[in-house]
Amino acid sequence: MSFIFSLVAVTVLVLVPLVGVTVADLRWLFGVVVPYAAVATFLIGVSYRVLKWSNSPVPFRIPTTCGQAKGLPWIKTNKLDNPCSLPAVIGRMFLEVFLFRSLFRNTRMEYHQGPKVRYGSSKWLWLFGLLFHYSFLVVLIRHLRFFTEPVPMWVQIVEHIDTFFEMGLPLPGPDGLYVGLPLLAQSGVILLAAATLLFLRRVVIAQVRYISIAGDWFPLLLIIFIAKTGIIMRYVLKVDVVTVKKLTMSLVALKPELPADPISFMFYIHIFLVSFLFAYFPFSKLMHLGGVWLSPTRNLVNNSREKRHINPWNPEVKFHTYAEYEDDFREQMIEAGIPVEKEA
Amino acid sequence: MKIYDKPVIVIGVLIFLAIFAFPLWTALGTTPPQPKVELPKDMKECVAPTEYMKSSHMQLLNEWRDSVVRDGNRVWVSHTGKQYNMSLTNECLRCHNEKSKFCDQCHNYVGVVPFCWDCHTYPKEAK
Fold this sequence. Notes:
The structure holds two protein chains of two kinds.
Chain A: H1 2-22, H2 27-53, H3 86-99, H4 101-104, E1 107-112, E2 116-121, H5 124-143, H6 153-162, E3 170-173, E4 176-179, H7 186-204, H8 206-211, H9 214-236, H10 241-252, H11 265-280, H12 288-291, H13 296-299, H14 322-335
Antiparallel strand pairs in A: 1-2, 3-4
Chain B: H1 6-20, H2 22-27, H3 50-71, E1 75-77, E2 83-85, H4 88-95, H5 103-110
Antiparallel strand pairs in B: 1-2
């Protein structure tokens, strides 16, 4: 149900700019207004949510650790998994944010010889998650060629590495497969493949399908459609890249201007889907972009043994210690034959 | 007693904004430069419709190469029925004879570096 809803939603998102540009000629709306609004929503929304999270107090350490804490000198500590210092925490965060270490620990439960439960390591999710995120990053970096002039050296280097094989995308041509120009950028294909696999994972594995909601299907489908329109635009229904860049450069210079030459409707579909992704971002699970940095179980030094963390808003508790109690009732206690710690 | 990590998070958000807005603060206030493509003066049409050439000339070149190298066919009949010799250096650059004022203008603008010139030559240009 939630899947059908997401599929319909994405289809509508494809049709809106298609009709809007080809029938109603709303090029200004889809080429300028929507992208600006989307990026503004993205920047403000993401900042707002992260700053709101920053209002959550963190009085205590949350030591969900995966390794031996620092203890006696002859016990080997696991610094990265149970960090007791800032550099070690930075190390753990690095592994988490850049290599998805938690996902690497993913296990799969299965029945083994009848009712015996066995947990096996399951790295597929990690692998495709990593491929997906890094190819997405490369795709984003390559797109900087539309937003910078001159194109920075490092963007060109990334592009150069990304087209390393110096071959085109194999497409059906008049005589067999046609492997042409422009050069195939691996990242785009890997992005689409990995997103498709993450999508199929939700379809094929019954348990994952059961817990999938629209908020899971929709972003995946949206990203798949974005990748598809991008690939179509680069290799098949070519668009006039120079004119596109004239538009995008006018956007970043904050002097928006529709170029005189026409731009293919494919471009408007692509940019509308991307705009929607940006605008949708702060309201969705995609906020894990900011959230992963703030994982309390990952980014806190586990020094509860060395340092006492007192919750500052603990109510003040009135103590009446045993020593005071004995002072109050010493005579009566001695009279009744109850042992006391301090004789009168 | 530190119970909020606010300062660190604010710095993080600022870094995020700075990185994300990177194209903005490099382009802000500037007039976007445009490629200055010099079209051949004495001719009116290209080997295919201009619209198609603008977006798909690399695919056309690829077609030409396949046709020449694989099939030995060097004759291209254009949309207006004219015949051309399928050749990168001898045909494209016969009309567009200054590579730096034509091909390179667009390519530098969008940051593509065709590797064709590793092997193919282009006419010498007066500097």
